[in-house]
């Protein structure tokens, strides 16, 4: 596979890889198959108490009366916390975290109380006995384009610009409409409200010893989490400790601390010295740990008969909560994917009386690669062009909005390689002409993309120990991503020692500060700090160190950061089978090819990519949190009613990586792989459904009803 | 109300006082400190709490402890011989059939249950109707394994590694049994 970089000059020699790039068994696999890796709720505690959260049952209003009497009578109950007796927090700037500070209710399912008891059974039972009387106020809990009042956020998540404009998109659309050979496409696409739902429910054990707070929490960022909690409680950071060696999945929902961590710490204040264990129930997770906003995406494409875009536009309409803004950056990918002289993107939000949205795997990029990638398929179809070819023709030689060169961009290579592996060349483009028994068969394609995000501030420490091993410490997190494995590989190469001489420590604020496991940046940021620390160690102590010798270093700034646009790209190909009678969609085959820089460990990398694609498949077919706007209730708030892909929903999923040497992204040459796998999948599925059935669905999930409606209007004939 | 029950877990006998509302899962995790089985939903919807309960796979979050006085429980931690992994566990390691690992002990116990059920010829929803004598572990193909393992959710999306891991374990078990 040949790949290209924008410039051939290599800025600095990369460390000679040995462990890096090798297929290594997951370091914690053995502990995990035995169930010995301790998650947040599993750290052994002496005489723990249990807290159970009480949530609001109205979508907006004020608590007018609190009755805790029955709860307090329950055997084993220690105390009941509500806004009437909870301590005042030092900082209430973050309204999501400022719980039990007043009678106001901002959304249904907000924390309004907690019971602390000797056993989990007593805490839960008593929680059901706490009575609140509310004065309800009118609320709006459903995003309705055309009706919801929209505003323009200052920025989108991650500092992305709210709007962007180049040239004159309206004029380009007008010109395309006037040209009979051209296409002006103007459609609106919708993605559903979805929830991360990691298998490990959010849980916290909190212990106060005097003014010191220790938290065993499930977190993607022990230091970030610690800093926030210290601020909320007005404590010096050095007095707050967080321990989290293992995370049972996060997907963004554990990227920032949520209210239950504050509640656990508040509860532990009541029983000073005793640990308080608090786990959210699966049902409570739906309102308390973030979710992906539903999106409405107006996509505009103007293209000539040759399929080359003259204009591209994306207007994203999303929801946020009235008490705290989260602006999903869904228009972001449109700014980078394809070349076109006339461009426009916008983000608009409706502030509703709903739970606070937050990060979910590939925020912005995941929903934002849906509408445009379906639109590209519609464009290809209208022009009678191959959908792979249309994407290839619109490949951007430089970053379309900034004009910067790409540090490397191998979208076309991914499309071509994917097409070859999938067997795309024999595809009959006509929709609804393949049938096997009751199954209508079709194939679809979409591009994938994810930016190379940088987060400054990670520090790694290396110390030589008297056991002859190098202890490498950094407060990183392994959410199943493989950090335990790949960071040790990186350290081994950087120190030029065999892997078993590395004693890696992560997931503890006692270790040097690490940035969040988010934005697909963990491995690169933490790994770069480890490389820097290892170099410093060797400079200082040479290759024959004495026990106790140590060094630490920070992730170096990237001197190329401003020169280049840096993104990973990919392409996904899907085969679907649609039941002609019921509209049921099955996906027998999903194949992705990704260009994401250097792969540190092909085994864990493949797992990350197939995991992302599986979640993308889940988004395409199953996932939707349904709101009952009358009550502000998230109706299907458990794992039976909010269906995520089960084993039998998945058949063949292949993920391939193409070699890509990018010397500019970071010293490791790694772009990040945690999120790109989920981008584009849903569009590829929807495009394949169109090819199978002739029905163009412009929203996900593609449930039977949406397909069936189209099939009824014109069922394809049997062959 | 509290009551004392006896459990045998991973070969060790325990006497434990439980609340009559305590599930087998909470008895193991919160009363005995045995945390190999995980709590993912507490509603029997995710399978993370699966163990072998009197020889059969069961979701312990749906079982009240007082109903299982005297039960024999095997968690993922007790599947192997001593420190040696059970063939299913080894296959999960070999196939990287896990990521975050939270559903994994349940997946592993469930897979052991699947192999036992297949050895006894139990059909599944996708077994061909009328298949004489049901099915055997060696005959477990992708669809059979995926169907039988669908009570165990994995949000990291390791299914395409879990199925070959279970198939490999079925093969290893059959070889071990001299078939």
Blueprint of the fold:
The complex is a heterodimer of chains A (719) and B (179).
Chain A: H1 29-34, E1 49-55, E2 61-67, H2 69-73, E3 77-82, E4 104-105, E5 111-117, H3 120-127, E6 131-136, E7 155-156, E8 160-161, E9 164-166, H4 169-178, E10 183-191, E11 203-209, E12 212-217, H5 222-233, E13 240-243, H6 259-269, E14 276-279, H7 282-288, E15 295-303, E16 309-321, E17 342-352, H8 365-368, H9 371-383, H10 387-393, H11 411-422, E18 435-436, E19 439-451, E20 459-464, E21 470-473, H12 483-495, E22 502-505, H13 522-541, E23 550-554, E24 567-579, E25 585-595, H14 602-621, E26 627-628, E27 633-634, E28 652-657, H15 681-693, H16 704-713
Parallel strand pairs in A: 1-14, 12-13, 16-17, 21-22, 25-28
Antiparallel strand pairs in A: 1-5, 2-4, 2-6, 3-5, 7-8, 9-17, 10-15, 11-12, 11-14, 15-16, 18-19, 19-24, 20-21, 20-23, 24-25, 26-27
Chain B: E1 2-9, E2 12-19, H1 24-31, E3 50-53, E4 56-59, E5 71-74, H2 87-94, H3 104-119, H4 142-148, H5 159-176
Helix pairs in contact in B: 2-5
Which features characterize this protein?
heterodimer, A: 719 residues, alpha+beta, Aldehyde Oxidoreductase, domain 4, 3 domains, 7-stranded mixed beta sheet, 5-stranded mixed beta sheet, 28 strands, B: 179 residues, Ubiquitin-like (UB roll), DNA polymerase, domain 1, 2 domains, 5 helices, 5 strands, 32% helix, 16% strand, globular
Structure commentary:
The complex is a heterodimer of chains A (719) and B (179). Chain A is an alpha+beta fold and 719 residues long. Chain A has 16 helices and 28 strands. The two termini of chain A are 40 Å apart. The model of chain A is unreliable at 1-15 (pLDDT under 50). The longest helix of chain B has 18 residues, at 159-176. With 179 residues, chain B is of the alpha+beta class. Chain B has 2 domains: 2-78, Ubiquitin-like (UB roll); 87-176, Orthogonal Bundle (DNA polymerase, domain 1). In chain B, a hairpin with a 2-residue loop joins strand 1 and strand 2. Chain B has a 5-stranded mixed beta sheet with strand order 2-1-5-3-4, with helices on both faces. The interface between A and B is large, with 65 and 57 residues.
